[in-house]
Here is the input.
Amino acid sequence: MSAMSAGAPRSLASSGQKSIQDILHPLSAEESALNPGSAAEKDLILPNGTPVDTSSPASSSSLLNRLQLDDDLDGETRDLFVTVDDPKKHVSTMETYITYRVCTKTTRTEFDLPEYTVRRRYQDFDWLRNKLEESQPTHLIPPLPEKFVMKGVVDRFSEEFVETRRKALDKFLKRVADHPVLSFNEHFNAFLSAKDLNKRQGLALLTKMGESVKYVTGGYKLRARPVEFAAMGDYLDLFTQKLGTIDRIAQRIIKEQSEFLMELREYGPVYSSWSSFEEDLHDPLEGVSGCVSNCSSALEELTEDMSEDFLPVLREYVLYIESMKNVLKKRDQVQAEYETKLEAVVFREDKKTPVPTDVEKCQDRVECFNADLKADWDRWENNKRQDFRQLLTGMADKNIQYYEKCLAAWESLIPVLQDKQEAEGETS
Amino acid sequence: QFLGGLGFVMVEKGTSLLKMMEISVAEAEKRTGKNAVNMQETYTVYLIETRPVDAASEGTNPVPDSLWRRYSEFELLRNYLLVTYPFSVVPPLPEKRAEFVWHKLSADNMDPDFVERRRVGLENFLLRVASHPDLSSDKIFYSFLTEENGWKETVFETGFQAKADSRLKALNATFRVKNPDKRFAEMKHYGDELQSVISQLLRVRARAADRLYGVYKVHGNYGRVFSEWSAIEKEMGDGLQSAGHHMDAYAASVDDILEEEEHYADQLKEYLFYADALRAVCRKHELTQYELEMAAQDLTSKKQQREELATGTIRTFSLKGMTSKLFGQETPEQREAKVKMLETQIEEGEELVKERNTECEEFVKSAWVDIERFKEQKDHDLREALISYAIMQISMCKKGIQVWNNAKECFSKM
Here is the structure.
């Protein structure tokens, strides 16, 4: 594989202060960056101090990311399939919890076997996500469903809650599996294949996590956020707002529908008691009562569906956006560090001597980050569009089904109501 | 056949008045004037239009005769009919004050929607009376429709108010009938049950209407937020924006839906008040029966008194008897005078009983004819009302399907 020149336009996703021509290609000074396990690569250290994950071919070096054909999501080249299903309750003396079955099918050589079936609990998914965030900080990590649920308010073991969670966990793993970089992550591999997840490493890293947070907030000042990333941040802020509004509206509708349902449940039976002291009108009135009852059931289904399918997806996206904003902040920090260091250098030395390596590494970090983020952003936009198209058409569908059920009920009532008149017509 | 304002008034064959003339309550207007205590008041008057039936069919279209009446005059007419035709189930007037309202509807009598619904209700009332076999040929009713001035005086001249007062007192008093007519007792019970169930139905329906309004209107908020959201999107923007418009349309559609439903509520209300009219007939029958029983009882006791005087035995307690025992026997002359008086009273009493008996029999006959007529009318009208209610619901469902399909199309283009 040949080293690329500084002039390759597509691959250099630079968004720094200088023009593309002036910036040295991050790899031009280090030919061996492509070889896994090379000495040079060991120098790549992430802002939080952890070594770069080098066990996979598409490591944090964004070059491979850029060179790889962007994954088509149609599954033609997909070689990793993951599903989450079969929730089961585990009762022990210490605690009660739910586990989910995680099935994997793959042709990837990174996996020892073509198929795996393991059982995981929410904690494990949480661990995986944290590991991904730490080890791939330049990428957008998909969200998990909410961790904490108020005991007493929500039944953590109810069918609806468990099913909602299962769907979200399934979505999470599928998004990771579809991601060209994240899917090769060693922790993801372990999650899918290991009999028992080794969490000691997780504990150790937890302390390092604390340090990294300090690092990020102990900030350098950013001169100017590049337009495209500023636009992303603005967009995310506005989008979160809109999602919040939609969530509130949906909840309000569910509430009003529930109260309407309550009245309907009282309304229908009144027709029934009326029919009990009528002769001619007995059947028509009884028919109306039955009709109202059918409509009530249809409405109940609609409300439940919206609660179970619509609201959780909205909330997932809000969480997703939260984590994305954090990634944007980290990016800002990386750029700020680079700019500060570069400035210090520029004023001290003359232009002839090459830029010191740590400044170069900062520059590299910035560019990698920007490239990863942009690629992920495009992917995210695409997914977002699909997800919301699906979500909203789903909402429309549910409402259509509700009205169709009611329509059928009332239409079938008409002949019952007209019955006597037809009989009269025959006899008269 | 001429159909009434609410489209479901059943017209009797051979109705005299409705065959001759078209009746409608065409308009409502606000007036101000001085009332009985010389204070300014605002009230509504309704324009009653009448036109001979033939005129329309001949092709000529003469201007209808018309006059203005206010609600209190309708009330006066109805009270007159109640007293004059006690065996008839007299059609009810639309409610005096708005009841069973859900929050958006005003309970204000001056509210234009209320006035409009009342106009329709008053027209319905007139058509019902005009198609009633007994009531339609009443002269007072006719002059109500045709003579603007002096009608009130004419009504008072009939002296119905005196009858009304005494009857009212009797009806309000509690009395026990010894041999209640089973059919009427059952009818009265039916009237009670009907009134109770329709009241409940109207109450719950009003609450449900309130909630339904809320459901639709909140969807309008989607319209706004989709519009705002579309402004920050590129490809998704158009789909969202148009979907938002459909959500607005959905929210707006509830106003028409609930207005139509109010129509259904009015139909139910008419029968709520009809239940009252039915019970009134049963009550009046009870009174008639009671008066007959009282007369018969009185006659029997007088006859027994005569017997005692004749045989000298005292079986019935009478104060006169006791005092005569205490203060000595009476003279034969005195006794004979008493007997003679009793004989006259007995004769009169027998006449009275005969009268009251005939009255009772006639009442029962007439009342039962009208009750049967009413039963058929009620079954027909309520069935029609339920059919139109079902049709309304079907229309609402179809509109809902259409709107959501439109929205779905927009979403799929996102």
In short: Chain A touches chain B through 51 residues (CB under 8 Å). DSSP finds nine helices and three strands in chain A.
